[in-house]
Write a structure and sequence with these properties.
This protein is α+β, with helices and mostly antiparallel strands and 711 residues long. Among the domains are: 3-73, Arc Repressor Mutant, subunit A (Orthogonal Bundle); 77-142, OB fold (Dihydrolipoamide Acetyltransferase, E2P), CATH 2.40.50; 147-213, Beta Barrel (OB fold (Dihydrolipoamide Acetyltransferase, E2P)), CATH 2.40.50.700; 444-614, no CATH class; 627-708, Nucleic acid-binding proteins (OB fold (Dihydrolipoamide Acetyltransferase, E2P), Beta Barrel), CATH 2.40.50. 32% of the residues lie in helices and 27% in strands. The chain has 17 helices and 33 strands. It has a seven-stranded mixed sheet. The protein has a five-stranded mixed β-barrel with strand order 3-4-5-7-6. It has a five-stranded antiparallel sheet with strand order 10-9-8-11-12. Helix 4 packs antiparallel against helix 17. The longest helix is centred in the C-terminal third of the chain and has 34 residues, at 590-623. The radius of gyration is 30 Å and the shape is globular.
Length: 711
């Protein structure tokens, strides 16, 4: 490096250090001697250099000179870190970690190459217009993602890749030798490999060709890729799973409590293949009931830090799309070794309870078991036994249902909230095309299993929470649900009042009680889905954390996820920690497990987003053949550009754009969840019933447009 370049570089560093001194001292006016002293520069020549920097920066209007040779930053800058939330016009808001009351606005030209979701470092300017402070990105700390799904567009000399992600506003330039066999118009996955400083567009390569647009497999795989879920398991992971022995040794059985002669069965959806929980039941000599919640012992088969373990952690969860399950574990484990299939010996980790006639827990035991399931039930089969009183294991099922009712009733009396959301299911033909839509019903059979799983999860969490006190509490993975924010709850209560429902927010228990009354009252009514969704939105989101806290929605002081290790990585962590502690192990590293918890929460959200995207795609695909048809719907959302309407008959949701309503000029009344005509004062409010016509369907964007049918 030349002396000139080296000197220039040193001068830039020194200049930045000088400006940082003003920043760190709250922009207190300083002269060159004071700045030099803070930099520990006492040599006269060094002081002269600092004096020169102050004068130069004044000419550049970075500093201003005030009285007595003192200087001050012309515009105070603050460094913050946050996540980029891109807008449609190319600008962005930086969502910070609560350092600023409002998000930081960044204009398009000041974003550098930051993309949606990236973690960035930002300069924040003191002088800003409006309620949001303004800033500029100075460093990209962590990319949210480098891979995108989209369409390949070919020309004679180069190719462009058009991303599906509406918040990815830059097309990706693909060199012709990086096409990986992709043809014009094909759907693919592209990876950004470079972004030259002077280039408008990033450079990338085609990593994987998905197939033709509109084909079911292509679109479902595109959704998985868009949310960061791999389409297949690495060869090393598959090989590792195949090498695991399926023989259960006598030594292993001897280390476990043997339940193979106790009545045991599984209850799952009719199309399930991964049976990760089973119930055992017997009447004890004292007249009480022993109920065992036996969970697949996944941690027995997956060793920490193995390729299998790392892959399961990266995925975090199984993903349930409309037409397929993308498992967290390879099929040999998820549907084979770990699945509690009937008439086979299986290894489990169990929570076994002695319950009295009123479903109070008299004794509890946690440990490893071996079971032999007597029967595999579907929910429908168990529901038939409950309703008719006849069928296989009728005595066991009816008593379990009776105990579950008592557990459930007590849970609600203690302040748990019952959110019965409607789950949309599709009837698909052999190509995956939807031919019908229906709403899945939750009956007593579902609730029976749910209540015993809740009991196991709660009791495991309580057991570990009692180990040690204060600073000596044992590190554990909890499932935490915070209390709702008062303003969000007040807003929901105000809206519910418009339908005649009263929400008492004086205490958590009163809130829960009135929300449950509301959920009962709205069942079957047109406003049920709207009010349920709004109520859920007013709640905090449940997360995984090592910080022991209550679960507001369930009204449990301690709660965890223990019952689904085949499909959730946090349950694997819980099994490992519980087994470690039951065997006298010391408390695990809290900081390490907190990072694992944060990743698990993030992957849970991504999986939920992918599942919603697959539902939206199938809704759009279903309504594509219904263009021009008229339906009754309920207004399910309002924005400044339109209102969302959910069709009552099939729960498909689309938008009526305000510009398409021709009888008036409508604007959003955000406070009252309504849009209002400015001349005629006609009001369309959340929950109102309207008639709509299916106007347009865009499968690529998963968008459905409706037009309003006015009387």
């Amino acid at each position: 490096m030349s002396k000139k370049k080296n000197g220039s570089s040193i001068n830039k560093i020194l200049t930045q250090m000088v400006l940082d001194i003003f920043e760190q001292n709250g922009n207190t006016p300083l002269n060159y001697k004071q700045v030099s002293a803070k930099l520990n520069l006492n040599d006269p020549d060094d002081r002269d250099i600092i004096h020169g920097i102050l004068r130069d920066e004044t000419k550049k209007r970075t500093l201003k000179e005030i009285s007595h040779g003192k200087y001050q930053l012309l515009e105070l800058k603050t460094f913050i870190e946050g996540r980029v939330d891109m807008t449609a016009d190319g600008s962005a808001f930086i969502v910070t970690d609560d350092e600023f009351e409002n998000d930081i606005f960044v204009a398009p030209r000041k974003l550098r190459t930051a993309l949606n979701g990236d973690r960035v470092k930002v300069y924040v300017y003191a002088k800003s217009k409006g309620k949001n402070k303004e800033g500029e990105v100075i460093e990209i700390l962590q990319r949210a993602k480098m891979e995108f799904t989209g369409i390949v567009k070919l020309s004679d000399r180069f190719a462009l890749f058009i991303p599906d992600d509406r918040k990815m506003l830059h097309d990706i330039f693909i060199p012709m030798n990086e096409l990986n066999g992709a043809k014009n118009g094909i759907k693919a996955i592209a990876e950004i490999t470079d972004w030259p400083a002077d280039a408008k567009n990033p450079v990338g390569r085609i990593k994987h060709v998905l197939g033709a647009q509109g084909e079911n497999d292509t679109e479902m795989n595109a959704i998985l890729a868009e949310y960061g879920f791999p389409l297949e398991f690495p060869a090393e992971v598959e090989r590792e799973s195949e090498e695991i022995s399926d023989i259960i040794s006598k030594e292993e059985i001897s280390r476990r409590r043997d339940f193979r002669n106790v009545t045991t069965f599984t209850i799952d959806p009719f199309d399930a293949k991964d049976f990760d929980d089973a119930l055992s039941f017997r009447v004890l000599e004292n007249g009480n009931y022993e109920v065992g919640v036996h969970i697949a012992d996944v941690a027995h088969y997956i060793q920490p830090d193995s390729a299998l373990d790392k892959e399961a952690f990266d995925r975090g969860t199984s993903v349930y799309l409309v037409d397929r399950v993308i498992p967290m574990l390879p099929e040999r484990l998820s549907n084979g070794l770990c699945s509690l299939r009937p008439k086979e010996d299986k290894l489990c980790f169990a929570a076994v309870f002695e319950l009295d006639e009123n479903a109070y827990v008299i004794n509890e035991w946690f440990g490893k078991t071996v079971i032999h399931s007597d029967r595999r039930f579907t929910y429908e089969e168990v529901q038939s036994v409950i309703e008719s009183g006849h069928g296989d294991f009728e005595g066991e099922i009816l008593k379990l249902n009776e105990l579950a009712y008592k557990l459930r009733d007590r849970k609600f009396k203690h302040g748990a909230i019952s959110f019965e959301t409607t789950e949309v299911k599709f009837k698909l033909d052999e190509t995956g095309k939807p031919t019908g839509v229906y709403v899945k019903e939750r009956k007593d059979a579902h609730k029976l299993i749910e209540d015993f799983m809740l009991l196991a999860n709660r009791k495991v969490a309580e057991h570990v929470s009692k180990m040690g006190k204060g600073k000596h509490k044992y590190t554990f993975v909890y499932r935490v649900h915070d209390t709702p924010k008062p303003d969000a709850l007040a807003g929901f209560a105000q809206f519910a009042a418009r339908f005649g429902y009263k929400i008492n927010t004086k205490s958590d228990k009163e809130t829960a009680r009135s929300l449950n009354y509301l959920m009962e009252d709205v069942e079957g009514k047109k406003e049920q889905n709207v009010l349920t969704q709004l109520a859920i939105r007013s709640m905090a989101k449940a997360i995984y954390t090592t910080k022991s806290s209550s679960h507001y929605g369930l009204a449990f002081d301690h709660y965890t996820h223990f019952t689904s290790p085949i499909r959730r990585y946090p349950d694997v962590m819980v099994h490992r920690l519980l087994f470690h502690y039951l065997n006298g192990g010391n408390s695990a590293n809290a900081e390490h497990y907190e990072k694992l918890c944060q990743h698990s929460s993030q992957m849970e959200k991504k999986a939920a987003d992918a599942e919603r995207a697959s539902v939206k795609y199938k809704q759009a695909e279903y309504l594509r053949d219904q263009i021009g048809n008229i339906f009754a719907g309920v207004i399910s959302g309002v924005t400044e550009w339109g209102m969302y309407v959910e069709i009552i008959e099939n729960k498909c949701e689309g938008m009526i754009r305000l510009r398409d309503i021709s009888d008036d000029f409508y604007t959003l009344d955000e406070k009252n969840y309504a849009i209002i005509g400015q001349r005629k004062k006609k009001v369309y409010q959340l929950g109102d019933e309207v008639k709509i016509k299916v106007k347009n369907v865009d499968l690529t964007k998963k968008q459905i447009d409706f037009s309003l049918v006015q009387d």
